[in-house]
Design goal:
36% of the residues lie in helices and 16% in strands. β2, α3 and β3 form a beta-alpha-beta unit. The protein has a single domain, classed as 3-Layer(aba) Sandwich (Rossmann fold). It has a 7-stranded parallel beta sheet, sandwiched between helices.
Amino acid sequence: MCGQCGCGGGAAPEVGATAATPIDAPEATRQLTLQRRLLERNDLQAAANRSHFEQHGLLALNLLSAPGSGKTALLEQLAARWPHPPVGVIVGDLATDNDARRLQAAGARAVQIRTGDLCHLEAHLVERAFAQLDSRGMELLVIENVGNLVCPTGFDLGEHLRLAVLSVTEGEDKPLKYPALFRSADAVLLNKIDLAEAVAFRRDEALANLATIAPAARLFEVSARSGTGLVELIGWLEQQRSQRGLQARAHAHG
C-alpha cells in the first residue's frame, strides 16, 4: 500500500491487535482533509481526460482486478480480435514494462506507467501516458490499472466504463470481501472459466455473490485461452461506443 491514497501505508497491524487502539483525532482529521483534496484534484483531471478521450472519438475503459487475474492475456485477445484496430492500452504496474511489450506484440498501441510504490493509477498519470499514444484511427482505449482490489477503486481516471476482472482461481467470495470495487463496476468479467472444473469453482455461489453486491453490472464469462465469451464482450463494447456517439478522429496528439 502506498500511503498516498488513504489506504494506510505504514507498517502492517500485528496479528490479534485490538480494534480499540486509540486514534489521534487531529492527525486523522488532517489525513482525511489531504485525501479529500487529492481526490478533488484527481476528479478534475479525470473530467478533463474524459473530455479529451471523447474529442478523439475513444471509448475509454478502466480495467481493475487482483494481480494474476489474467487482465493482460484478455487484452492480448481483445487487441487481436477488435474489429476496428488498433486498440490503445495504458498499462499500470509497480515495475517493468513486460505487459506493455506483450500488448505491443499482440498489435496494441501500448504505453507503460511504472508506478514505483504507488498502488493505483491516478488521472494525471493517465493524462501524461495518453500524450505518448498515437490515437489516429483508434476507437478503444483500455487503462489496465495496477493489480489491486482496494486502492484503485476510489480514483476516477476519465473512463467511460469500469470493468472488474474476477478469475475462477481467486474464489467465489471476492465480491463479498471487496464490495466497493465490484459495486463500482459497469461489467464484471469472470475470467479463466475454462479452469472452473479443475479448481472446483462454485459458479452458482459466485454469481449469487455478484448479484448481491453488483446487481446492475453486466456479467461476461470469458477465457483468454479458449476465447469463450469474447465475441459477446466485444459486441457489448461496440454497442456502448455507438450509444455514446463516439467517432474515431484521424489526428495525433500535438
